[in-house]
Specification:
Distance between the termini: 21 Å
Shape: elongated
Number of domains: 1
Strand order of the largest sheet: 2-1-8-9-12-6-3
Structural class: mainly beta
Pfam family, one: DUF6711
Oligomer: single chain
Number of helices: 1
Strand content: over 45%
C-alpha cells in the first residue's frame, strides 16, 4: 500500500489523508468578505501500525530518517496512487514486549508524513 523511496513497507492498520491549504496574507475587506491568498494545497498522512517485530519497526523508522523522502500512496483527491515528497513528524512506538522465545515485539507505531 505504501512505498518509501520506492520500497514497500509494512501496511499500516490505520491510514488517514488530510488535505490542507497554506495561506499567505488573508484579510477581510470593508464588506467583511475574506480576501484569501492560498499559496499551496498539501497533504499530511497519519499512519498507525499494529504490533511490529524489531526488524519491521526498524525498517520503517530507518526509511523515514532522512530529512526528506518520497512516499507512494493512494490519494483521494487525485483518485490514484501518487508519489510526493514528505518529511516525518513525531514518531511514537509504545511498549516493547518480549515473548517466551526471546523475540521482541513493539505494540505498534504511529507517525505522520507531512508534505514538503
Amino acid at each position: 500500500m505504501l512505498k518509501i523511496n520506492g520500497v514497500a513497507i509494512a501496511t499500516p492498520s490505520t491510514f488517514e489523508v488530510n488535505i490542507y491549504d497554506i495561506d499567505g496574507e488573508s484579510n477581510r475587506n470593508a464588506k467583511g468578505e475574506l480576501i484569501r491568498d492560498r499559496i499551496a494545497t498539501k497533504r499530511k498522512l497519519k499512519c498507525e501500525w499494529p504490533p511490529l517485530t524489531m526488524a519491521n519497526i526498524s525498517a520503517i523508522l530507518q526509511a523515514t530518517s532522512a530529512e526528506f523522502f518520497t512516499v507512494e500512496y493512494p490519494d483521494p483527491m487525485a483518485g490514484a496512487v501518487i508519489t510526493k515528497t514528505f518529511y516525518v513528524g513525531d514518531r511514537s512506538a509504545p511498549i516493547l514486549k518480549k515473548d517466551s522465545s526471546g523475540n521482541y515485539t513493539w505494540q505498534g507505531l504511529s507517525l505522520s508524513f507531512i508534505e514538503k
